[in-house]
Amino acid sequence: MLNGFRDNSIIMSRYEKGKEVLEEIQQRSVEEIFKDLEDIAPDLGRFVVEFPYAEIYTRSEVDLKTRELCTVAALTVLGTIPQLKEHINAALNVGNSETEIVEIIMQMSAYCGFPKSINGVVAAKEVFEERD
Predict the structure, then answer these.
(1) Which helix (H) or strand (E) element contains residue 125?
(2) Residues 112, 55 share a domain
(3) Claim to verify: residue 55 and residue 95 sit in the same structural domain
């Protein structure tokens, strides 16, 4: 029994499905992405892989490009800069332009205020510079 689940094949198929999507958009291994969780909360990384990436990101109704722009918008509003930077990078990886990303972050100023929007644009600038 794996963490209370009897059918390990279901867990592994969800995990593998999510891992494939996450590694595609981040262009890094899951192990690298969640290395900070390994020694304290390894199941948290698994939860992230299995739910948002296996169950949400794989739905066919919205493409990855749109999903990543929505995620950038949400993380801007929340003000979670480390995750925002990861998803700005992912948004670029799935075909969004720097201009599209900045426009979405700027639009969020109407919903979360100028400080969070400014922080988001600065985070975007840092990601763009790191990628050059």
Answers:
(1) helix 114-131
(2) no
(3) no
- Take residue 110 and report the two structure tokens written for it: 């109407």
Phi-psi region of 44 (alpha: psi -120 to 50; beta: other; left: phi over 0): alpha
Residues 87, 57 share a domain? no
Same domain, 28 and 48: yes
Tens digit of pLDDT at every position of the chain (132 positions): 344 444 555 555 899 999 999 999 999 999 999 999 999 998 999 999 999 999 999 999 999 999 999 999 999 999 999 999 999 999 999 999 999 999 999 999 999 999 999 999 999 999 999 998
Q: Where are the alpha helices (DSSP H) in 79-113?
A: 81-93, 98-107, 109-112
Query: How is residue 10 written in tokens?
Result: 């279901």
